[in-house]
Design a protein that fits this description.
eight-stranded parallel β-sheet, about 550 residues, TIM Barrel
């Protein structure tokens, strides 16, 4: 697997670096920061969408897959960026949003104009006999999943925002048009593709109500036809590149399906994003709630997915941060007392596991959530919809705001913090989204005297150097420990095996943890404290400490 030893860096272009003073990040801004990206040692950059879009959902509402959003730059800028990264041996991964298009896309506009050919590009259904909407499905952004289709008696399906019309993958022409998009970018030298919410494309041709007491997502998530269509896309496009790297974003998926999507013999995708581990601070499954994270659940999910996907020869994408999540430091660490320690511990927990690690811009310098004072500070449509729903449920304005503060996607979309100058050095203008705490948390400070950025660079280098990290087998260790997430990795067999023990203390109190006898006296490969190797079968982990101990086969 050519992607096993890779590390992928995610850039949200709108917030990375603004080269024009418009307040919005752009492609030339990324070009100006290529040397910084290269200094990390990463192998590929995943870019969130920068295609033409009315920006109702920050670029995930695409109106033209072949055009660059003007605020982001031009096609020549993009070609220059691809070439600049390639000079450093860094590939690019594009975000393919294929479940839906913007209602401003030519296909939807031609459908609205009455062209039957294009009406079959979407899910259009009349109201039910009783006058209710075509189905009882809910939009993932709140409200019903159906909206009137022009002045007809039909409705169109939108699982997401009302401006994002779901595409009908049953139509062979739709599939071919989307495969053409992948091939267009392949011709530009793109070898990485991230497929947005790809496991919800497999809806039935005629959509029906979810039975009473049944979640509507069960009607369209991970149906067998998704695998059929992903295989078809593989054959028609990226599967023809030996060095392609693909990842599917899988909403509410299972270990079994994760294996089906990612096992090499299946000829579907390289790896999968699953999100169950990022729901451990949801109250009874409700994202818009505010409760402490459940460490036992987090640990169990990490162990279960690592072992389960490994057993089927599948592959996980490893991450705690992305553009849709609050900063992991605020959720699972201590930003007040142990920001450096918890940032580095969380990094090790991800990077030393089995799978391909993803770094979301800013996590390598320990960025935290912004401190906003009102809903006016938030831009994301999901946050505003959630606030309204929380108020309707009976929460006070202050209570609803407190929940939004903890879970809003804008938390991770604040501008990248380059230095301590105005607006974190992101723009000379007014940033499109307010900045977080950048006076001390910024790239310049980390490069000068920080501890988080060097730690990330070392983790990246270790994955490249040690096959036990990139390819080794995963086995849980002390799975019942109340505050430690631990595992071993093993490459090779018997006395020739190389093994790694990884211990992660998820809390601000020191704790004792048992150590397998064979690791006593081993080599400390990395730790976020000045640490010696274990000298006995017990080891005292300091607050938020991570410790990785290596034993080399044949020594």
């Amino acid at each position: 697997m050519s992607f096993a030893d890779k590390v992928i860096y995610q850039i949200y272009p709108k917030s990375f670096y603004d080269s024009t003073g418009s307040g919005v990040g752009d492609l030339r801004g990324v070009i100006e920061k290529v040397s910084y990206i290269a200094s990390l040692g990463v192998d590929m950059v995943w870019f969130n969408p920068f295609f033409a879009s009315p920006q109702k959902d920050n670029g995930y509402d695409i109106s033209n897959y072949y055009a660059i959003e003007p605020s982001m730059g031009t096609m020549s800028d993009l070609e220059e960026l691809i070439a600049a990264l390639d000079e450093h041996g860094i590939g690019v991964m594009f975000d393919m949003v294929f479940n839906h298009v913007s209602t401003e896309h030519e296909w939807f506009q031609r459908a609205l104009a009455g062209e039957k050919e294009y009406q079959d590009f979407f899910y259009l259904q009349p109201a039910q006999v009783n006058g209710s909407l075509p189905t009882n499905w809910k939009s993932k952004f709140g409200g019903p999943a159906w909206e009137p289709f022009g002045d007809t008696n039909l409705y169109y399906l939108h699982l997401y925002d009302v401006s994002q019309a779901d595409l009908n993958w049953h139509n062979p022409r739709v599939r071919q048009e989307l495969f053409n998009v992948v091939n267009f970018w392949r011709d530009k030298g793109v070898r990485g593709f991230r497929f947005d919410v790809i496991n919800v494309i497999g809806k039935d041709e005629v959509l029906l109500d979810a039975p009473e007491g049944t979640l509507d997502k069960l009607m369209y998530t991970d149906t067998p036809r998704v695998h059929t269509w992903v295989k078809e896309m593989n054959r028609a496009s990226f599967g023809n590149d030996a060095n392609s790297v693909t990842v599917g974003e899988l909403s509410s998926t299972t270990i079994e399906n994760g294996v089906l999507y990612s096992a090499p013999a299946r000829d579907e995708l390289s790896m999968i994003f699953s999100f169950h581990h990022l729901k451990v601070d949801y109250d009874a499954g409700n994202k818009w709630s505010r409760v402490p994270f459940d460490f036992e659940a987090l640990k169990g999910l990490w162990h279960g997915w690592a072992e389960g996907v490994q057993a089927g020869n599948g592959w996980n994408a490893l991450f705690l941060n992305n553009h849709d999540q609050p900063r992991a430091l605020n959720r699972f660490g201590d930003v007040e007392t142990y920001r450096v320690e918890s940032a580095t511990m969380l990094a090790a927990a991800v990077h030393l596991s089995r799978g391909t690690p993803y770094i979301y811009m800013g996590e390598e310098i320990g960025m935290v959530d912004p401190v906003y004072s009102s809903m006016d500070d938030y831009v994301d449509v999901e946050a505003h919809n959630a606030f309204a729903t929380l108020r309707e449920s009976g929460l006070s304005e202050a209570q609803a705001f407190e929940v939004v503060v903890s879970k809003a996607r804008d938390n991770s979309r604040t501008p990248m913090q380059w230095d301590a100058s105005a607006h974190a050095g992101f723009t000379s203008g007014t940033p499109w989204l307010g900045t977080a705490d950048y006076a001390e948390i910024n790239v310049e400070a980390e490069q000068r005297e920080g501890k988080i950025l060097p730690f990330y660079k070392k983790l990246i280098a270790l994955r490249h150097e040690y096959p036990v990290i990139s390819r080794g087998r995963y086995t849980p260790w002390v799975a019942d420990h109340r505050s430690v997430y631990a595992f071993t990795r093993q490459d090779g067999e018997g006395s020739a095996a190389t093994e790694l023990l990884v211990l992660n203390n998820f809390y601000g109190e020191a704790t004792d943890v048992s150590v397998p006898e064979r690791f006593i006296g081993g080599q400390v490969l990395i730790s976020n404290y000045s640490a010696d190797a274990p000298t006995s079968g017990a080891y005292r982990l300091l607050p938020y400490q991570t410790l990785a101990v290596l034993i080399q086969g044949g020594q």
